[in-house]
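Researcher: I'd like a structural prediction for the single chain below. Treat it as a standalone chain; there are no partners to consider.
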Amino acid sequence: MSGKPRKKKPRKVVVYAGTRNLYQVMLPSIRSLTKNTKVDRIVLLIEDDEFPYQLPANCEVMNVSGQQFFSKDSPNWRQQFSWMTLMRATYTKLFPEEEKILQLDVDTIVCEDLSPLWDIDLSGFYMAAVNEYTSRTRPFGPGKYYNIGVCLFNLAEIRKDGIDDQAIEFLKRQRTEFVDQDAWNKFCAGKIYELDVRYNETRYTGLTDNPAIVHFAGTRGGWYSNRNVFRAEYVDPYRDDQKA
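Model: Treating it as a single chain, here is the predicted structure.
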């Protein structure tokens, strides 16, 4: 029986990034992800060889403290975790074997199976993300601006067009307000697949009655410990995970 060969599905890979001060607060997001979605690989970009808390079996850590992409003279090396945010512009270099990567901020809670994200045809797109309708920032003109706290990167397309190298060089030279997010918005403009707001519900993107991912972006006073935080019902089941 003849026919076209079935296209191999890309592996489901999720990446988090955080410095030591964020290790503990990564746990609720990781637990919510593994509870709701079967993924092939979860990678934590951290600044140590080992993670100090128990992790699911399919989690691995990558110590990127010795990275060679950015120096302390970089205009964006200015906050206690900004250098780690810069590393999110280097996925094509860190993961040459992967076609797609789902980036999740540490202050996210996954509410349902995210498998449909990997089924999106990203041919001709560099990434998939949710638009910030509130226009907190428009650093590169009047076009749409996307929040990449939840972002599915098409690494194959980014490599092909050299977008990664452009973003890295830009971040070495120019200070930005939202570090890698500004760079990806600049160089991926016109080739960003717009996700439904359900996949990244924040104060800046909008809220629905059935979120797939709740993102506590911009929340002050400890989103993971504040019982009065907006959308507290989604983080409540995972608060004890910080003690793991």
